[in-house]
Amino acid sequence: MILKDSKKMLQYLDALLTYGNFTRAAKALYISQPYLTQLIQKLEKELQVEIINRTAKHLQLTEAGKLYYNYLETLENETAKFDDQLSQYTTPNGTTIKLGVLSTLGSYLLPLFLPQFLQTHPDVKILVDENKPQRNEANALDGKIDFYIGQNPETLSSNLIFHECGNHSYFAIIPPTSDFFDQTKTVLPLGSIPMAELLGEQLLLTSSGSAIRRQVDYLLQKYQVQPNIAVESDNIFTIFNLSKLGTGVTIVPEEIIGSLPQQPAYNLYPLSDHLISINFFIAHRADKTLSSVEQDLITAFLAPFN
């Protein structure tokens, strides 16, 4: 098999199905478009059947492709079962907890609570599975992970129980290239920029399907704005840094901004919580019986925001 890593191949296929074409999928995966195209072609040659329907406007799986996708999911399920069985020997005196989280979100949230939790529970082993929100939710429902950590739980399956924290604000990053930039200020007054005009700027956005993007898409629809999107990325830090350098306006949660610049190299424009806000959550299957250690993990997750 050309690519034996079923997890990686599922990520490639998920990206193709999400973005609908090879160029945007490759960009989201941080690989080249020719590499992704050739990989799928070689795989189809090995399988002796097409797995991608290229005649559709938005790429879809063929019937053979659906069968292959299910095969990859079965491999992932078997791998997860094997890891569970093996853990009793690799960590005989401890507990293993599997967390699913988007990589950029995990880079911010996990350091806030995991170090202290592990100090209290030194025998616990944490396995972090970094995936897109849709995959994390599916893995939580299938029992492949113990907890799914995400943001804005409104669309979560009713078969998951979630514990949320906070109500965190968003800011628009106004670069010096924008007409709204004010070199005399760091933070612009709330309400000083009409929302429709702000959304009409050249935008840098997180990829479709992310919690932040869903909220921005709602605003675009609400204010009937056809967006001018210059850059899309799975990595919110990439978008944030590009915006600061003048590539375009973006919208980010307050948690990633960090310290303010001494000189106003860019402006922060606060957005009303009535329009857009962010809540973090940790979720598990509704039928899961939590151990005392797992309950402690939830408490540790919520603690930094209380």
UniProtKB/TrEMBL annotation:
Keywords: DNA-binding, Transcription, Transcription regulation. GO terms for molecular function: DNA binding; DNA-binding transcription factor activity. PROSITE patterns: HTH_LYSR (PS50931). SUPFAM superfamilies: Periplasmic binding protein-like II (SSF53850), Winged helix' DNA-binding domain (SSF46785). Residues 1-62 form the HTH lysR-type domain. InterPro entries: HTH-type_LysR_regulators, LysR_HTH_N, LysR_subst-bd, WH-like_DNA-bd_sf, WH_DNA-bd_sf. One of its GO terms (cellular component) is cytosol. Pfam families: HTH_1 (PF00126), LysR_substrate (PF03466). Belongs to the LysR transcriptional regulatory family. This is HTH lysR-type domain-containing protein.
